[in-house]
């Protein structure tokens, strides 16, 4: 979300867009968006499990599934909506995608049925982009007088006088965020302490640069990628790694006719299905998850507190979300 384009935090449920994004070129950048660990990691068994079974797994120490994480985002949007309306402003929750469409697409995608229906998700991304551009909250904000726009911004996140949270990243940078208004109130209801949540979230979501190089050089993981590549070559798709396969389906953004778009999507789907089939046949996902967990484990001595706090607050947020909004279908 670009701050200059929309009122703060208005358009997309928090975290939604960035968790799907896989548009960065290059192996290191692609691996940085691996969907192998974290709140979006979920096995096929987890996808099929009942909500009660998923909750039981979570409370036993499992990381949240993408469906559970999405429910928290939906709850945050709902809480902001209720708060903004109480303060005299119109606000609509954004839920353009189904649960299936919201599934993250990372470096390893081994769900053949999903690939057969959605390829690498280009049509889903286009659908989400259209919804973002047509978001009624943007038009509503623009329709307000200057003074009401200022009041809207203050109601949303506290405006210029909001608390400015700052937190260092594991790699040495600093991330800041305004914390006030309805956005802060929603986070307080979900996580308990918005500042503590921000600190743990910044730490956990920025750990990958610390181990991605090791994972890229891991012999077992490289061997699995090589096996995937041999499988793809036999299927008529000679690519060295999953990122190269995905990038080959990306077309220029020029306007396409309906027939051209259909041909482009058919090609994307063929490659995505082969990709998922080969990933499954060589157990690329499970190997990647296991090796990633190994390198994350090496960081727990320094960042274990942040990881534990992050999961603990996520669990609390999920409990609140389950009382607040239905699961997305």
Automatic annotation (TrEMBL):
Q: Which residues form the signal peptide?
A: 1-41
| Record keywords | Signal
Q: Is-annotated flag, keyword Signal?
A: yes
Q: Where is this region: Disordered?
A: 237-259
Q: Indicate what this protein is called per its UniProt record.
A: Lipoprotein
The organism's superkingdom is given as Bacteria
**Start-end of Polar residues biased regions:** 246-257
């Amino acid at each position: 979300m670009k701050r200059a384009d929309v009122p703060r935090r208005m358009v997309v449920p928090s975290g939604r867009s960035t968790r799907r994004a896989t548009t960065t070129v290059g192996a290191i950048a692609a691996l940085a968006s691996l969907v192998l660990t974290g709140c979006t990691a979920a096995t096929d068994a987890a996808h099929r499990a009942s909500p009660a079974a998923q909750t039981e797994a979570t409370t036993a120490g499992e990381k949240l599934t993408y469906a559970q994480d999405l429910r928290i985002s939906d709850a945050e949007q709902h809480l902001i909506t209720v708060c903004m309306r109480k303060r005299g402003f119109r606000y609509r929750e954004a839920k353009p995608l189904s649960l299936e469409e919201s599934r993250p697409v990372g470096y390893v995608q081994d769900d053949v049925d999903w690939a057969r229906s959605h390829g690498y998700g280009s049509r889903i991304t286009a659908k989400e982009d259209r919804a973002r551009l047509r978001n009624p909250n943007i038009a509503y904000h623009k329709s307000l007088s200057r003074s009401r726009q200022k009041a809207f911004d203050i109601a949303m996140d506290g405006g210029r006088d909001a608390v400015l949270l700052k937190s260092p990243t594991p790699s040495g940078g600093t991330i800041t965020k305004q914390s006030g208004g309805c956005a802060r109130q929603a986070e307080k209801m979900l996580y308990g302490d918005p500042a503590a949540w921000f600190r743990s979230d910044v730490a956990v979501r920025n750990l990958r640069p610390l181990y991605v190089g090791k994972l890229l050089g891991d012999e077992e993981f490289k061997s699995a990628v090589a096996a995937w590549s041999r499988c793809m070559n036999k299927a008529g798709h000679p690519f060295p790694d999953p990122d190269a396969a995905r990038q080959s389906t990306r077309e220029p953004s020029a306007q396409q006719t309906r027939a051209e778009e259909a041909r482009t999507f058919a090609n994307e789907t063929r490659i995505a299905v082969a990709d998922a089939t080969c990933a499954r046949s060589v157990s690329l996902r499970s190997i990647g998850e296991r090796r990633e967990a190994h390198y994350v484990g090496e960081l727990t001595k320094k960042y274990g507190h942040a990881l534990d706090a992050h999961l603990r607050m996520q669990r609390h947020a999920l409990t609140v979300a389950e009382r607040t909004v239905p699961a997305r279908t």
